[in-house]
Amino acid sequence: MATDVQVPALGESITEGTLAEWLKKPGEAVAADEPIASLETDKVSVEVPSPVAGVLTEQLVQEGDEVAVGAVIARIDDKATASAAPQASPAETAAASTTNPAGAGETPALRDEGEVELANPDGPPLDATVQTLSPAVRRAVLEYHVDPTSIRGSGKDGRLTKDDVIAAAEAQKSSQAQAGAQAPEAKSLAPEAKAPRPGPRPAPGNVGERKEERVKMTRLRQTIARRLKEAQNTAAMLTTFNDVDMSAVIDARSRYKDLFEKKHGIRLGFMGFFVKACALAAKDVPSVNASLDGEDIVYHDYLDVSVAVSAPKGLVVPVVRNAESMTFAEIEKTIADYGKRAKDGTLTVEEMQGGTFTISNGGVFGSLLSTPIINPPQSAVLGMHRIEERPVVKDGQIVARPMMYLALSYDHRIIDGREAVTFLVRVKEAIEDPTRLLIDL
Asked: Domain 111-177 belongs to what topology?
């Protein structure tokens, strides 16, 4: 009996998504609640589980198709077994005979669905030796002329990624270059061989083959672009800057990091200090933690911090809720968990909704200074940057100190310049003297 697989509810106000990748192919056995496809929405990637155990018999949509909540995308036969793969369609059979008429001595041909047998000699055992290549990987395989069966996949469950293909192509090119370097020895062994006639010289300015790749923006990237542009068009954005001496925080981490990790099972990072400093500063300057709703300003007596996290498909901002009442360990554990799940694509929509203030740490990528963009309907965002030793004057002496630039972008419709500067100074004071975080100064 066939059971329909429907697109699950994707979260508040989200009515459709894009089928990003099939995780199972027709003929493969699936367990109940095992993911068979990955959907991409405006905010997160969502896996579609199988409602029953059985065999995937039909895929009703293709990768890249738009699908609405409740739409049927596949069918599962809960009575069948995966002992035999489904018969190929006539079109597939014709395509296979055209691509590989001899059928012997060649690498497995890429089928229309992008299926190919992948070896995984060193990795964990795969559910099946046949994997499904995404469109980007399929294009890379064809473009770089590499054998995908010889590449070990580094993606989820051993799947092949575009980076794997490019790395294999570079390795193949390097091997060919080394082989070419040995050509003079062959020439000395065969002096009677005539040197090939040199070909025409390349025309001046000829830089070789120039390639372009056109890739459709993901739904998440489209949403990021739209929201950021809306923020620029709507908010009266302004950025104020300050710098902060990180000596005290660095010293505190050095002294207590081992004890902290031993007690709490998590490393003591910089984000815990900055989240607590922002919570303290927001008490003195509540407008920085407010939002604009029509003609009303909504003030919050709690601090829900949206932490900007880089994910493979774009920037996401999961929310650390009630940060003002959390301990350092709770903050660090929450942020570490969000970072891991952002890379895995397992964040939920609810975890990225409702923030009141944003912190973005571009310093982890080496950024010296930036003007971050507000995340509507919030009114401010704090930008952290890299730490580097710079000469500063202390007690009349020029000394080297580990300094960081801070940037606060804010909506001037809600926040005055005096308030923005005051908030940033409060953060600076708390970081340069972390004792303030303990005695609420």
From this structure: Dihydrolipoamide Transferase (4.10.320)
